Here is the input.
Amino acid sequence: MMQQIYPVGSHSYAYELNKDFHFAAAHYIPHEDAGKCQQVHGHTYFANITIVGDELDHTGFLVNFKIIKDLIHKRFDHAALNNDQAFSDYVADQFPSTEVVARTIYEIVQQYLDSQSNCPVCLQVFLRETPTSYCIYRPKRKDRI
Ligand SMILES: Nc1nc2c(c(=O)[nH]1)N=C([C@H](O)[C@H](O)COP(=O)(O)OP(=O)(O)OP(=O)(O)O)CN2
Ligand SMILES: [Zn+2]
Here is the structure.
């Protein structure tokens, strides 16, 4: 796997953790304006997830790298994204575009982080769909940054 640093906005948290992983998945965009993307096709997605916080947990981790990968990889690797309940063929904001998949990954990760007593925060999800196309999803925050 290529080792690379991805752009992250400045923040004042003490710890910043990044987890990289791949997953292979099929999808289509169910709208005629999506051109060839209307046809079912596959990608080897590359994800980089950035998590920040000020406190470590009982293991000395901000969050376990393995859990972050498993949350996404176990659900989406070798999956047909359009069949996953996170996505819909009827609402554009839920079509499995790079943007929506990146946002969905954020939502899954942050939901897990919300259950942790040391309160880590997912700052952004970088999602590469092809060698020439990627999206960064950064939730809007009023606090800390
Ligand atoms: N804003 C978005 N635009 C497009 C998305 C998307 O998710 N968000 N998706 C697609 C297609 O699904 C396709 O997977 C990617 O398209 P594209 O980058 O055009 O792929 P190519 O490999 O053909 O790119 P080249 O750089 O021309 O080789 C389309 N648009
Ligand atoms: Zn695609």
Q: What stands out?
A: The first strand starts at residue 15 and ends at 27. Strands lie at 15-27, 41-53, 79-80, 121-130, 133-137. The helical segments are 65-76, 98-113. The two ends are 30 Å apart (CA to CA).
